[in-house]
Specification:
single chain, 3 domains, about 70% helix, rod-shaped
């Protein structure tokens, strides 16, 4: 109250106050500092007493570039910058008081009045953001939202840790779960951003059926419609899972091996001579090698197939050879049956006219 009243008197009745008292009143109104504070301020600005105002401003600019939080300097420090700013104010006030105390220098009072600092507006919003004040305000609001989200996640993690403090195993599991949740959320946001970016670029404009609803390919209540539609879309666009291609390859290979073995057995004939038996043995050895390679493909298929009931068992060489023999015997029986029927048909055609003549003679009346 005293300083305000004195300031009012000084401003209202400046002509009535003697010139020698003005410097003391200026010091009281501007916040007078002791000599020790003034000396420390000169040291902070790396100056000596008696320097010019231009030296003070130059030193302040250099230190502001060095310690300002938004500068790219490696020595940026907000606390040091605040000290530099306070020292700059104190030194300017000291120089202004000295100039006012000297006679004949009142016309230069306005030159040493404290001015607004060049980087003062960057001290708002915790030093976050760049650009105009409105842009920095938006960036600061987003920064606060992200910080609040991080604090919520940390709070949940701390609650989980305190709840299961007695069990190290459960504690580690909760920490992994919280990290997994963070990673899952980050991946989902990343995927959604990529999808939206691709849609904005028009990467999906070349797809068939754009803008049309998905058709229901199956009415079965036991099939998930979403999974069924996804699989149908993949199949229609030429994509097939690896395990389906492996399964198709295995079936085609075993069918080809069986046909080749049966064909080789038919070429040898029945009964087999000694050279033919040796040749049949080589065919069986080649079949065993092919079956061994095929079983490796079966192992690969069992590793990637998503359903346990779809896994396949190994093929046996002995069973395949026995299967080929049975198939060959069935072919022989079929050929022999067809030959017997053909021979009987020829005999019937040869003697059929005689039997019909005898029947006619018996039926003719005498």
């Amino acid at each position: 109250m005293l300083s305000n009243n004195m300031g009012h008197c000084f401003m209202g009745r400046g002509a009535m106050i003697p010139r020698k008292l003005k410097p003391f009143l200026c010091r009281m109104l501007s916040g007078y500092k002791s000599k020790n504070d003034v000396k420390d301020s000169y040291k902070i600005l790396e100056l000596e007493e008696g320097c010019s105002p231009d030296d003070v401003r130059s030193s302040y600019r250099n230190l502001a570039k060095k310690y300002h939080p938004d500068s790219s300097s490696g020595m940026a420090d907000s606390k040091a910058f605040i000290k530099v700013e306070e020292a700059y104010r104190v030194v300017l006030s000291d120089l202004s008081a000295k100039q006012k105390s000297e006679p004949g220098e009142e016309e230069e009072e306005e030159q040493f009045k404290p001015k607004s600092l060049q980087h003062r507006h960057y001290l708002s919003f915790e030093g976050v953001g760049i650009g105009t004040p409105s842009q920095r305000e938006k960036q600061y609001m987003q920064f606060r939202v992200d910080r609040a989200t991080e604090q919520v996640l940390q709070y949940r993690q701390q609650r989980l840790e305190s709840r299961h403090a007695g069990s190290h195993l459960s504690l580690a599991e909760d920490v992994r779960h919280s990290k997994k949740v963070k990673i899952t959320q980050a991946v989902e946001r990343l995927v959604e951003d990529l999808i939206q970016e691709s849609m904005a670029k028009g990467d999906f404009d070349n797809l068939s059926g754009k803008g049309k609803p998905l058709q229901k390919f199956s009415d079965s209540p036991h099939i998930d419609p979403m999974t069924h539609n996804l699989n149908r879309i993949l199949i229609d666009n030429g994509y097939q899972p690896e395990w389906i291609l492996l399964q198709k390859e295995i079936r085609e290979t075993i069918e080809r091996l069986r046909k080749s073995v049966v064909a080789a057995r038919r070429k040898l004939g029945e009964p087999m001579t000694l050279p033919e038996q040796k040749q049949w043995g080589r065919v069986c050895e080649q079949l065993a090698e092919d079956i061994r390679k095929l079983n490796k493909r079966v192992d690969d298929f069992n590793l990637v197939v998503p359903i346990l009931s779809r896994q396949m068992v190994h093929f046996s060489t002995d069973k395949e050879i026995l299967r080929a023999r049975k198939t060959y015997e069935a072919v022989l029986e079929k050929v022999s049956d067809s030959g017997t029927k053909e021979s009987e048909g020829e005999k019937g055609k040869r003697f059929g006219w005689k039997s019909s003549l005898l029947k006619w003679l018996k039926l003719t009346p005498k």
